[in-house]
Amino acid sequence: MSEPARQYPSHESGRPAPGPLRDWLAAMKAHTPPAQEKPAERAARPEAPRAAEAQPNWAPRLVPPKPAQAERAAAEPVRNAVEGEDVSELMAENLILKAKLRVEADRYAELQAILAQEIRDLRKHVQEEMSALDAVREERDLWRARAEALAQPLFQKR
Asked: Are 56 and 34 in contact (CB under 8 A)?
């Protein structure tokens, strides 16, 4: 589907459209029939900008009207069979997604448990380091007090 996109460059905003959008626009232009316009209508409408005329004729896609009630009733058994298949596919997909979600929830819970244990270990280590630091500070304060006590007679007046 990318081949038509290379044949129809985008002229709308001066820069090329992204790939999927460009492909979609090219496919839409290729599948829509050119609009037939009468010469009288063309003469009656005001002049369009040059950029609009440079693009090939394009018309919006027409959506067919909804079928009548009788046609719907006739199509009901076929639709129910198709919907039954669709429902079973959706149910199967739903079960698969629930199983994947359960597995991911288990993995998430396991990761949370591992992280909680790591945080506990880290807190314990930090607490041990802080206790060791407090012991060093106490010892430093003790030596400072001893040094001041020994140095005090040196600075007293006689």
From this structure: yes
Q: Provide the 8-state DSSP code for 45.
A: S
HEC string for 86-151: HHHHHHHHHHHHHHHHHHHHHHHHHHHHHHHHHHHHHHHHHHHHHHHHHHHHHHHHHHHHHHHHHH
Going by C-beta distance under 8 Å and a sequence separation of 6 or more, which residues neighbour residue 32? 58, 59, 60, 61
Number of residues in the chain: 158
State how far the Cα of 122 lies from the Cα of 91, in Å rounded to an integer: 46
d(CA 14, CA 4): 19
Tokens standing for 36? 């037939």
Spans of the chain, pLDDT less than 70: 1-19, 21, 33-56, 58-60, 66-84, 158
Q: What is the largest CA-CA distance in the chain?
A: 126
What integer pLDDT is reported at residue 70 of this predicted model? 57
CA-to-CA distance for 9 and 11, rounded, in angstroms?
6
